[in-house]
Structures are given as structure tokens and as C-alpha cells.
Design goal:
- It is built from 7 helices and 4 strands; from the N terminus they run E-H-H-E-H-H-E-H-H-E-H.
- By secondary structure, it is an alpha+beta fold.
- The chain has one domain: Nucleoside diphosphate kinase-like domain (Alpha-Beta Plaits).
- Strands 2-3-1-4 form a 4-stranded antiparallel beta sheet, sandwiched between helices.
- The longest helix is centred in the last third of the chain and has 12 residues.
- The chain is globular.
- It binds 2'-deoxyadenosine-5'-diphosphate and magnesium ion.
- The site of 2'-deoxyadenosine-5'-diphosphate has 9 residues, from loops.
């Protein structure tokens, strides 16, 4: 494995429920390094760019309105195998399927309010880091 960067984002439901500190602790506990961390509300353009692969799907419009509905915490995380380490830490997309001990398994409410986003590949990470941290 190589040192990678990945983009994580704590979603509006988790920010609203006051779960940011506990989620950030789990990221820090992996030993990966947080290089940037920022509270912000996404623009519609940023949301559309981040989720372009899902355009046209039945859940797309709801996803865009949800992710822009309130502040998120944007994170740039770095370390050995950071993309895969973070995907494993997040757990399955649907919290109902996510294992206990994963962020979605422990904090997630539903597939459309599933607490955290994480890049799914090194290529996605490069695009998302550029999109959200320029
Ligand atoms: P992931 O976030 O695990 O990479 P994804 O890229 O397939 O999952 O989907 C992006 C987001 O879209 C996901 O975090 C929540 C939402 N989503 C996915 N499938 C959904 C569905 N069937 N119903 C509602 N929302 C969904
Ligand atoms: Mg995805």
C-alpha cells in the first residue's frame, strides 16, 4: 500500500445530531492524519459534481437536497491505504447492513441519512479533494 489522500465528509444529519466529535475520534483512532477539516454548507454545484455518477437515479434529487440542507464537515485525510481504510471504517452504504463498530453501523439512521461520505477510489479522491479543498 501507498500513502494516499482521501476526502471524507460528515453529513448534515450527523452534524445536526452532535456526532462530529465522536466520528472525528474514530478517524483519528485509525492513525491516519487529518490534514484539513472545515465546517461548510455545500453549494448545489458542489453537490452535483460530487454525486454526478448518480444523476438520473430515483434517489438523486433527494440526495442533493439532503446534502445541501445544512452544514457538513469536510475532511482531507492522509496515510497508508487511506481510501480503503476509511471505506472500511465507514461501513456499508445502508446503515441497516453496516457492521457494528463502523461509523454507519453505529450512527446511521437510514440509507439516505447515512452519516458520512468517503471517496471510493484514489481517482475519486483526487477529484473530490480538488473539488472541496481546491
Ligand atoms: P457510498 O456513499 O457508500 O459510496 P453510493 O455512492 O452508492 O454509496 O451512494 C451515494 C449516496 O447516495 C449514499 O451514501 C446514500 C445515497 N444512496 C445510495 N443508494 C441509495 C438508495 N437506494 N436510496 C436512497 N439513497 C441512496
Ligand atoms: Mg459512492
Amino acid at each position: 500500500m501507498a500513502v494516499e489522500q482521501t476526502y471524507l465528509m460528515i453529513k448534515p444529519d450527523a452534524v445536526a445530531r452532535g456526532q462530529v466529535g465522536r466520528i472525528v475520534s474514530r478517524i483519528e483512532d485509525t492513525g491516519l492524519q487529518i490534514l484539513r477539516m472545515e465546517l461548510a454548507t455545500l453549494t448545489a454545484q458542489q453537490a452535483a459534481a460530487n454525486y454526478a455518477e448518480h444523476e438520473g437515479k430515483p434517489f438523486y434529487e433527494g440526495l442533493i437536497s439532503y446534502i445541501t440542507s445544512g452544514p457538513v464537515v469536510k475532511l482531507l485525510v492522509s496515510g497508508e491505504g487511506a481510501v480503503a481504510v476509511c471505506r472500511k471504517l465507514m461501513g456499508a452504504t445502508n446503515p441497516a447492513d453496516a457492521a457494528p463498530g463502523t461509523i454507519r453501523g453505529d450512527f446511521g439512521l437510514s440509507v439516505d441519512a447515512n452519516v458520512i461520505h468517503g471517496s471510493d477510489s484514489v481517482e475519486s479522491a483526487e477529484r473530490e479533494v480538488a473539488l472541496f479543498f481546491g
